[in-house]
Amino acid sequence: MEPTMQQITWPVIALALMTAACDSGGGVRISTRSSGKDSPGVLKVVDALQCPQTQGVLTRKGSAQAEGATCIYGGPRGSEVTLQLVKLDNASVHQVLKDFETRLSASLPEAQAAVDARAAADVAQAGADAAAQAADEAARDTAHVIAGPVRVHAQDDKASVRLPGISIKADGDRADIRIGGLTIRADDKSGNVKVASPDKSVNIDATDGAARVQTSAPGEAVRATFMMTADRTSESGWRTVGYEARGPVGGPIVIATVRSKDRNENRLFDAAKALVTLNVGD
Prior knowledge:
about 280 residues; alpha+beta; Protein Transport Mog1p, Chain A; 16-stranded antiparallel β-sheet; 4 helices; globular
């Protein structure tokens, strides 16, 4: 049985969107750099923050607090950015950043609940798919196409395509796409998307109305980004929260936390990142 038009176009459209996102100037931008002693990306150890009066769309509120460890900035439409110098005090970087994520996510409880529920459903669905696949296989009409490195397998309402470095599996409204080490799972019907890398340096959970993005660069130094956003304003008044964090592996690390009432958060995060870079380097 030949695959339907929806089965063919869904993965093709998904690939096109991913390519466009990588080529565009917006969206999630991820860069890495070596943090060795002789590399230009070494991060500085600082004992007090540099807090300029203005940075991009941000304006500092008052003077530095806590002996130079905290500066508070205001931005467009009541947005807030807090720049902090955080000592690890024998805690792991992972735990420190996790605590920041927990506190920020509490500002968007509805979005957090939706994303967490979606992530749990994805795990359950993956198990159900694996169990059902063996039972389905014998009963379905199949078609195979092999042309050099390209392999296409169609089976009723399912289809898979394999090319060097790329694998696409479509099942009705759902698609599983692997590009290099990146995995994209999407459900066209519900609007849910999951993006992850094997080393967990990229993790994106998105559902209808909410999204959570976590990135970290490889290497010993800390270079991490977190963002949670919602289509609707929460009871707290915020629509987007997150942080930009950098610092040497032993600390202290500089973290700029962001809270925004607007979904156009790019300029806000750019300014927060610039404050962090000013203090510890790129």
